[in-house]
Amino acid sequence: MLLSTFQQDFLEAGCDEAGRGCLAGPVFAAAVIFPPDYCNPLLNDSKQLSEKKRMALRPIIEKEALDFAVAMVSAEEIDRINILNASFLAMHRALDQLKQKTAYIIIDGNRFKPYKEIPYQCIVKGDGKYLSIAAASILAKTYRDEYMDALAPEFPKYDWLSNKGYPTIKHRNAVLTYGSTPHHRKTFKVTEPQLKLF
């Protein structure tokens, strides 16, 4: 069972991003604030859930959260400031949109760029430990997938409907064969060994 909050003293927002390892498309991030005593046994890290379950949970999260926001940073911006900074910027943009005044932030991962003067805690695998981060991972992932699905018909050779911009063998081969689109990250190399094969 995931925990509702990391600390009890302040109103807390959970943040996560989606699309960091993609060759194409923006990186998305979400911020979610739940009531301190919130409970939902179905919530989990988005990577552990099927697409159908993620889409079923999204309206529940949006209805039951005290506040939530989703933001993105474009491929062009990623090329300009690098993917790590772009991930932080996407989270900052999501936090900017919250109407509730959050006083503490928990972030999935081990690095973060401070947001205003608000205290924060990075939590490795936080999307599998805290409800608000899990919810943020689901929102970021589902909104990003929808964005890539909407682009896909214009660029059918790249198979974005199934790979969402991630570096599958088919996607890499399409880039090598047909070149990149305006939505591709020019600073990401298709042949780099650290890009995992999916």
Q: What do you see in this structure?
A:
- Its EC number is 3.1.26.4.
- Endonuclease that specifically degrades the RNA of RNA-DNA hybrids.
- It catalyses: Endonucleolytic cleavage to 5'-phosphomonoester.
- GO terms for molecular function: manganese ion binding; RNA binding; RNA-DNA hybrid ribonuclease activity.
- InterPro entries: RNase_HII, RNase_HII/HIII, RNase_HII/HIII_dom, RNaseH-like_sf, RNaseH_sf.
- The structure is a single chain.
- With 198 residues, this protein is α/β, with parallel strands linked by helices.
- It has one domain: Ribonuclease H-like superfamily/Ribonuclease H (Nucleotidyltransferase, domain 5, 2-Layer Sandwich), CATH 3.30.420.
- It contains six helices and five strands; from the N terminus they run E-E-H-E-H-H-E-E-H-H-H.
- Strands 3-2-1-4-5 form a five-stranded mixed sheet, with helices on both faces.
- A hairpin with an 8-residue loop joins strand 1 (12-18) and strand 2.
- Helix 1 packs across helix 4 (131-151).
- The chain is globular and about 55 Å long.
